[in-house]
Amino acid sequence: MAIKKGDKIKVEYEGKLESGEVFDSSAKQGQPLEFEVGSGQLIKGFDEAVIGMEKGEEKEVTLEPKDAYGDPNPQLVKTVPKDKIGIEQELKPGQILGVALPNGSQFPAKILEVNDKEVKLDMNHPLAGKKLEFKIKVVEC
Fold first, then answer.
1. What is the rounded radius of gyration, in angstroms, for the C-alpha atoms of the chain?
2. What is the dihedral sign for C-alpha 47, 52, 57, 63?
3. For the whole model, what pTM was predicted?
4. Residue range 8-70+128-140, CATH number
5. pLDDT of residue 114
6. 101: burial class by Cβ within 10 Å (0-12, 13-18, 19+)?
7. How far apart are CA 27 and CA 14, in angstroms?
8. HSE-up of 52 (CA within 13 Å, CB side)?
């Protein structure tokens, strides 16, 4: 039976960048990915790719940034006073920091530049602006 919006399914997957580097996979997570199709739990392109597939079916898809994590947003690059970071260790460009949100959750921010007084942070998703390639296999629907 073909998968449709609202179905709860399990898939095995592997996500790669255009360079061939694997950034995530169900094998790395140790179990298949379980989700409700069309519920917005996943990136749009992945969610849409499984519609119409059947149990045991495999598919490869390439997602443009608009169907994945979007394009980088320049408004998410911020310069903050170094003393507001609250970390004792030396800060270096390329490091990833956990930035706390008012609701208590955290998200990653990459350090772009550091000087004596300020730190420039990129709070875009690390995969923003990237084309992603997925191999998907439906294991349960």
1. 18
2. negative
3. 0.78
4. 3.10.50.40
5. 92
6. exposed
7. 8
8. 4
CATH topology for 74-122 is Thrombin, subunit H (2.40.10)
Task: Name the pairing type of β-strands 132-140 and 8-17.
Answer: antiparallel
Structure tokens at 66: 């608009």
Residue pair 127/70 in contact by the 8 Å Cβ criterion: no
* Interval 82-122: pLDDT, tens: 887 777 778 899 988 887 777 777 778 899 999 989 999 99
Indicate the average pLDDT of the chain: 91
Looking at residue 65, what DSSP letter applies?
A: G
Q: Write down the domain spans for the chain.
A: 8-70+128-140, 74-122
